[in-house]
Amino acid sequence: MSAQPRPRRVVVAGGGSAGWMAAAAIARTMGRTVSVTLVESDAIGTIGVGESTIPPLITFNRLLGINEATFMRATQATFKLGILFDDWKEKGSRYFHSFGLTGTDHWSAGFQHFWLHGRTRGHDAPYDDYCLELAAAMQSRFAHLPGDAVNYAYQLDSTLYARFLREMAEGDGATRIEGRIARVDLDGERGDIAALVLEDGTRVEGDLFLDCTGFRALLIEGALHAGFDNWTHWLPCDAAIAVQTPNVRAPVPYTRAMAHDAGWQWRIPLQHRTGNGIVYCSRYLSQDAALERLLGNVEGEPLTKPNVIRFTTGARRRQWHRNCVAIGLSGGFMEPLESTSLHLIQRAIIRLIRLFPHGEISARDVAEFNDQQMTDMEQIRDFLILHYKVTERGDSAFWRFCRDMAVPETLSHKIELFRETGRVFRRNEELFAENSWVQVMMGQGITPRSYHPIAAKLRDDELDKMLTGLRDTVAHSVDSMPEHAAYVARYCGAARPAAA
Ligand code: FAD
């Protein structure tokens, strides 16, 4: 049997966050063994949103040897400690999903069990008081603490992020070709992708193709018909309008997600401006009404024209198919509520590098990749559905639909287990850990009916010492932190960009 040539020519189609994250990571980690060519079209441009992130991005940056302050300066980034949810459980309600731990866990039971027991013994402090990141966010404070004691992510300008990564990737030898892909040529015999053909006739041949063409999914769907699982019956929002505004106050270290009667609105403060957007379900709200609602609920005069985006929630059935891997929006999109898309991109890239073909592409590698990627997506999907399903809102047709919809069995099990026992289990390296589920489930209105008996084994004085001690530690640590905006200015203050 003759050995197949190693897939040495990696061709990245598309230069949004997905394309440049992939090109930068592969060029940096595998640049000696593969060539990386990226094709993008300035005329088409990128989606221009994707500004709120979650903590694993720190790991991605470290893996690539990116200096944090340099990266934050280049992307006008601020720190993010979590998301503040307004009006989700009911109008007027508010809760915070922080990136931190709340309290301290026992091997047998999460902190919520001890907190629930405390409530029966006269401790009425909110669950929130035991979380450093949450308390710091609410006071708009931030600092790096020794031992990586603060869990955080970033709020960044996605266009500047792609530019930053491009510089890095090109520095590591990646080649960029500007042009519109007009056609995808398949190898007649195998059915693999042989080349991208640009409008000017240029052929870009490769061994492994990364489809980073966004919602267009030109390669994975357009050429290879990998299929799509539609999840709109669980995640019904299908449109968004984004607009940027000036900062009218010092940027806070958290993203806001404000529910309205047919979806929700985001507010993401960066160093130089604020990103805003409304996400809605077009069955229940027209585009004109959504725009009016968005503009009526931003602070300051818009700096940009509204960017209208339509989408279908769901996942590409085969994320890796033949010699093509879908990364980014081409692989699916669930909605931006928990800022998970850049994370899925990062997971796909790292997964691809770990399973990178040695010679001929192995069907087992492909199956493993697809299985792992789909597991990630389904777990995130369930977490997102939770926000819509568990609500006391019934004030609009949209919320009544969400409240009454059937949800995946995996999610109903999780909800009912928590409702009955206060327990949450994390499976298969799930992204969202126990405390994320607890914060959102309690925030959306579930109070467990019971808790682990081990919590009741503590004597009252032991329980008192534990709870008071934890709260005091949080309060003292937050007191020692500087104001977030001042810390950002000192640590990574960016010059104002020349023009928007
Ligand atoms: P795109 O940015 O659309 O890039 C596609 C690329 O393909 C472009 O360079 C384009 O020019 C190129 N291309 C397409 N067709 C052709 C062609 N024919 N020829 C040549 N080039 C072509 N994610 C988060 O993590 N956090 C968030 O807060 C967040 N908010 C979001 C809000 C909304 C409303 C939406 C829709 C998404 C959000 N996301 C968020 C997701 C995030 O924006 C994307 O995951 C991320 O930007 C990656 O997009 P992409 O690179 O896959 O696609």
Describe this structure in words.
With 500 residues, this protein is of the alpha+beta class. Among the domains are: 8-51 and 157-229 and 313-361, FAD/NAD(P)-binding domain (3-Layer(bba) Sandwich), CATH 3.50.50.60; 103-131 and 379-479, no CATH class. It is 35% helix and 19% strand. The chain is built from 15 helices and 21 strands. The strands form five sheets. It has a seven-stranded mixed sheet. A six-stranded mixed sheet has the order 7-2-1-11-20-19. The chain has a three-stranded antiparallel sheet with strand order 8-9-10. Helix 1 runs parallel beside helix 6, helix 5 crosses helix 14 and helix 9 (341-354) runs antiparallel to helix 10. The protein is globular and about 75 Å long. The protein starts with 8 loop residues before the first strand and ends in an 8-residue tail after the last helix. 48% of the residues are buried. The mean pLDDT is 96. The structure holds flavin-adenine dinucleotide. Flavin-adenine dinucleotide binds next to helix 1, strand 2 and helix 9.
List the defining traits of the structure above.
500 residues; alpha+beta; FAD/NAD(P)-binding domain; 6-stranded mixed sheet; 21 strands; binds flavin-adenine dinucleotide
How do you describe this structure in short?
The chain has 15 helices and 21 strands. The protein is an alpha+beta fold.
Q: Are there runs of 5+ residues with pLDDT below 50, and where?
A: none
Number of helices: 15
In quaternary terms, these chains amount to single chain
Count the E strands.
Answer: 21
Distance between the termini: 57 Å
Question: Strand fraction band?
Answer: 15-25%
For the largest beta-sheet, the strand count, sense and barrel status come to: 7 strands, mixed
